Amino acid sequence: MTSTIPVSKSPVTDGPAIQARGVAKHYGALHAVDGVDLTVQHGEIFGLIGHNGAGKSTLFKMMLGLIEPSAGEILVDGASVRGRDFRKARRHIGYLPENVVLYDNLSGLETLRFFARLKGAPSSQCEPTLARVGLSHAAKRPLREYSKGMRQRLGFAQALLGAPRVLFLDEPSNGLDPQAIRDFYATLRGLRDTGVTIIITSHILAELQERVDRLAIMAAGKIQALGSVQDLRDQMHMPLGLELRLEPGDVAPAQHALSQLIGVSSVLTDEGLRVSCPRASKMAVLGALAGLGARVLDLNIREPSLEDVFFGFSD
Predict the structure, then answer these.
(1) Mean pLDDT, range 193-203, rounded to an integer
(2) Is the pLDDT of residue 2 over 80?
């Protein structure tokens, strides 16, 4: 994903890029979203995760102005989604839906020109945008010849038209190969550096772990946790894991050294020991292991993954 297209260099509002206050959406007795408060700053890559039915898609659609909240207020780029100004603000919002539906008989370039007219964006952006998502070679091919990954990249391209200040991306890496995913997130980092705010929903938690600045975990229509991945680890008081590789005769001395520490446990593995310890005890554990010297053949420290954190909050 190369080349350059126009992007917004700075936000036009002094407040947050997105602000939700007491937002709810009720369908009779079903509270799909139930009193959400959320603030997302300009130039932030923000993840929104949750089980199916958690309310994240409904919240997404309310932020886009596609459905009206039952209660509360949402401001996007300073404009209320209920107000007259939101029509103008919408021109600076990009959206990639989970399921990209396009016209098979149009070419990639014709598709972008169609979306450019809808957005009021100059058609001169279309070819550079195709180049940015790696589709220049297929610009004149009909979409019926596009693979799933190519369609996804074209969907991303239409979201980039019009120099968006806020991007909403729903399962954006769906169908992309590993190299395309890497290029996609490199593009997002470049956009963030120009002040673009990016909201992502994804079920691929490992993909988001190192790529979002902050995230929110939703369950039962509410935000259960909010912060960076490390913030959420700290909130959950999740233990660290250590994998020790030891010679068989050195396992007992290692277990003895670790048994002196409060809150530290270990179990035998084929190669040595698997150790669990509170984060605050990490240096004490390393100090105890240092006393064993060369008996420790290898050591690997495992932080709780975003998946571990997610299930800790949502279960």
Answers:
(1) 93
(2) no
> Could you give the C-alpha distances from 185 to 72, 170, 189, 199, 211, in angstroms and in order?
33, 14, 6, 13, 7
- The segment(s) of the chain belonging to CATH 3.40.50.300 are 18-227
Angle (CA) 301-183-215 rounded to 5° is: 55
Q: For residue 260, what is the enclosing H or E element?
A: none
Residue 158, pLDDT above cutoff 80: yes
Secondary structure (DSSP) of 24-76:
EEEETTEEEEEEEEEEE-TT-EEEEEE-TTSSHHHHHHHHTTSS--SEEEEEE
What's the CATH number of domain 18-227, 3.40.50.300, 3.40.50.2300, 3.40.50.720, 2.60.40.1670? 3.40.50.300
Three-state DSSP class for 80?
A: strand
What percent of the chain shows pLDDT beyond 70? Answer: 95
Torsions phi, psi for 183 (to 5 deg):
-65, -40
Instruction: Please give the model's pTM, rounded to 2 decimal places.
Output: 0.85
Q: Tell me: the pLDDT tens digits for 21-31?
A: 999 999 999 99
**pLDDT tens figures, 97-121:** 988 889 999 999 999 999 999 888 9
> Are the beta carbons of 31 and 24 closer than 8 angstroms?
yes
The maximal CA–CA distance of the chain, rounded, in angstroms, is 75
The Cα 103–Cα 159 span in angstroms is 16
Tokens of 162: 């019009």
Which tokens is 142 given? 């009909």
Q: What order do you get walking across the sheet with 240-246 strand by strand? A: 265-268, 272-277, 240-246, 296-302
User: Where does the chain hold its CATH 3.30.70.920 domain(s)?
Assistant: 237-304
Q: In 10 A of CB 235, how many CB atoms? A: 14
Rounded Cα distance between 262 and 134, Å, is: 54
Band of the pLDDT at 279, cuts 50, 70, 90?
confident
What's the topology of domain 237-304?
Alpha-Beta Plaits (3.30.70)
Q: According to the model, what pLDDT value does residue 116 have? A: 94
Residue 275 CA to residue 288 CA, distance in Å, equals 12
